[in-house]
Design brief:
Blueprint lengths: L4 E2 L27 H10 L4 H4 L2 H8 L3 H25 L6 H8 L2 H30 L7 H16 L3 H31 L13 H4 L7 H6 L2 H8 L4 H4 L7 H10 L1 H19 L11 H8 L4 H34 L10 E2 L5 H20 L4 H32 L15 H19 L4 H24 L12
Amino acid sequence: MTSAHVDEGQADKGRPGTRAGDAGAEGYQRGLGARQIQMIAIGGAIGTGLFLGAGKAIDRAGPSLVLAYAIAGLVIFFIMRALGELLMYRPVSGSFSEYAREFIGPFFGFVTGWTYWLFWVVTGITEVTAAATYMTYWWDIPQWLSALVFTVILYGANLISVKLFGELEFWFSMVKVTAILGMILICAGVLTVGFSDAGDTATVSNLWNDGGFFPHGISGTLMTLQIVMFAFLAVELVGVTAGESKDPETVLPKAINTVPWRIAVFYVGALIMILSVVPWSTFKPGVSPFVKAFEEMGLGIGAAIVNFVVLTAALSSCNSGMYSTGRMLRDLALNGQGPRAFTRLTKNGLPLAGTTFSAALMLVGVWINYQWPGDAFTYVVSFATISGMWAWIMILISQIRYRRMADAGLLPQSSFRAPGTPYTSWFALLFIGMVIVMMAIDADARISLYCAPLWALALFVSYRVLQARTPDAEKPPAGTR
């Protein structure tokens, strides 16, 4: 990997109409094809939140968790269509940070960029540590060594080319998709043919026989919303790829429009099948429902398979973190809201400084998690949820304001208009607000609401200091227009 750099504005030097943050002015290489974008979009909706977190959610809500995923999935679709409208108006790698800056204000672009960066750093810390833990299932090797190896490998892959990142995500996503489809087919076979140890008791009526569809009442279902929304985090990652997609006007709308069937199959469909084959009361927090279902069916090899799948999911998440953090830091720097060093690209069009800085912090996090494992995962999940939802809030508000300006003739209309807006966007905002209220009620999740104001205060002070030291900090560096 060469360390030589090119000027960030060189790719479109002298081109009229470009601006900081525009895809053409960013200098990235469009190395992500339709196949890779589609699988990144699919894989973004499937992670450890489903493979592991669903066990706790089933224990709290019972079969009604299916309804929680369905409703939350509809909200996610509204969010993604709002993002899609913005992307077709102006496809940029900075994505929602850039849109927040344009439609809400420079301060909100600053907060969104740094918060989304922190979200992926924190998530990467958790996921690479989890991946190291999963390795001990097969081999008795030090956790820190596995974490170090995984981090270095993914870091190296992200510095070779964006195409390699896309290939890794393609195959990571393929493993997750294949595992869930395999589980659905096996459960369908148990229900129809009756093979395996669970064949005699497997029935769709398991969805309502044991305490009803809402065994813990509506309140029990509502209390799972934080877990449900965490499972959907990273679905918006497809927006960060906009500046490096070969044909964003065609590829991104197709990827976004697959959101409903992805959620219907991989979340709603998979849970209906699992809860039909195995009664919901069998599942417990901390145990993957997929592993438990295999055990109840007498298919012990399933545990090893699921362990491999969750390892893949963790590495996929960390890989996405490496990718997105470098782009977010560069977008901030291009707009004068981050260190100038982050604006530089390698000859392959990759943000070396931002990716390296983020990877270094992830290594520090591995050490922290190794020293104090305890409840770190629960706290990180809560903070990741609130910071990830901030990005969704900015997407929705930006889209509402963009549509108002476009309808007034002040901006060009997007070629991919979100249906039902502004009503669908307002509904999504209200839903996210309800999730935040549920987090405040939940003692395990409340810690994130304590941390969020501290982070917001730190950003506010940093922004004021930046303004004082650099009065024109909101203007992009010379050479990027």
